[in-house]
Automatic annotation (TrEMBL):
Similarity section: Belongs to the glycosyltransferase 25 family.
InterPro entries: Collagen_mod_GT25, Nucleotide-diphossugar_trans
Species assigned in the record: Paramuricea clavata
Keywords: Glycosyltransferase, Transferase
Gene3D superfamilies per record: Spore Coat Polysaccharide Biosynthesis Protein SpsA, Chain A (3.90.550.10)
Claim: Glycosyltransferase is one of the keywords in the record: yes
Name of the protein in its database record: Uncharacterized protein
SUPFAM superfamilies, per database record: Nucleotide-diphospho-sugar transferases
Source domain of life: Eukaryota
Amino acid sequence: MPYFPVWDWIRSDHNEDETASILHDWVDKVRPLYHGIDINTTNIDDKYEDAISANHWSLLRFKRLIDLRQAALDEARRLWADYIFFLDCDVYITHPNTIWSLLEERKAIISPLVHSFVKKSAFSNYWCGRDEK
């Protein structure tokens, strides 16, 4: 695999678990492997006043996510990044060559299909129907 400098831009908020400390421990261990890592977990205590429960995707929560993604795009542009890869923390990439496989497709926009590990789940990262393939 060819080497290219990777810059991680990590944001974590609205956590009620040990996500922030796990992320910081990981960054401490892998920082030398990356061109740069920008991590910010200062908003971990944010609560969304329009949320019905801790896991409710309220309008304010959606706005926060949109703002974070826009900030990531802005930072990628500032760094003259060739690529940007978004990954939410509730998604686990288990194949070690996922990113390389996506890059080899040479598409302007591409995403892997994320499968749910919950049986009979209708979850998909695509907003359309899907079959067993």
